[in-house]
Amino acid sequence: MLLDADECQLVLVDYQTRLMPAIADSALVLANAVRLAQMAQAMGVPMVATEQNPEKLGASAPELGEILTLARARIFPKMAFSACADGLTDLLRPAERKAPAGNARSLPKHLQKVAPPAEPTRATVVIAGCEAHVCLLQTALELLEEEFEVWVVTDACGSRTERNRDAAYDRLAGNGAELVTTEMVAFEWLRSAQHPQFKSVQALIK
Fold first, then answer.
1. Which end of the chain has less neighbouring CB within 10 Å, N or C?
2. Structural domains of the chain, count
3. pLDDT digits over 60-103, tens only?
């Protein structure tokens, strides 16, 4: 099973200014998060960035915030550790559209107003973030419970300690999440060297 860019959404969890300095290998973790965001923008993959208690932990790191702004990504502030508890699931899964008001059932069928078709859900969530064993883990597990396919980008995730980070990966894999890397995501979204975005995406990971 390979990732399909047309079926994916990217969720970036809590890459915040006051949190990142405490994360092990934070420079590499953040650099890969930025690459993921740039790749998503190039490939037309919708993005959501969460921010845990932003009044205390700050906004997303500036280098990531810049690409989020350019891509018009949705910023999702939260207080719960799992973003799903604060409503992320509803953001990722479009609500059913109701028929316009004033639909009279007594009218002939050809005159009745029909609800517009619902926007299809992109049911695959590519997710990365901090801390891997807290907010990332809890969000990913709840997305799995909500029947999303969850792909965790391991080299763009971090915790204060490697032991906590690695324990999160073990638990996520055991619950059905796919563990991948930034380059895996890049080349699976592309699928071919003939893709129109091949050169631009390849340049991001060289």
1. C
2. 1
3. 999 999 999 999 999 999 999 999 999 999 999 876 555 555 55
Q: How many CB atoms lie within 10 A of CB 105?
A: 6
Residue 104 lies in a domain: no
For residue 155, give both structure tokens. 């080299």
CB 22 within 8 A of CB 160: yes
Q: What is the pLDDT of residues 4-61, one digit of tens each?
A: 999 999 999 999 999 999 999 999 999 999 999 999 999 999 999 999 999 999 999 9
Beta bridge partners of residue 12, listed in sequence order: 49, 128
CA torsion 8-119-13-63 (nearest 10°) is: 80
Residues in the chain: 206
CA angle 189, 193, 194 (to 5 degrees): 100
Report the 10 Å Cβ neighbour count for 109: 7
Parent domain of 63: 5-93+121-205
Question: Which ranges constitute the DSSP H helices of the chain?
Answer: 26-43, 54-57, 62-70, 88-92, 137-145, 162-174, 182-190, 198-205
Would you say residue 174 lies in a domain?
yes
Nearest to 202 by CA among 122, 193, 25, 114: 193
User: Could you tell me the pTM of the whole model?
Assistant: 0.88
151 pLDDT higher than 80: yes
Phi (first) and psi of residue 102, to 5 degrees: 90, 15
What does the alpha-carbon distance between residue 127 and residue 180 come to, in Å, rounded to a whole number?
10
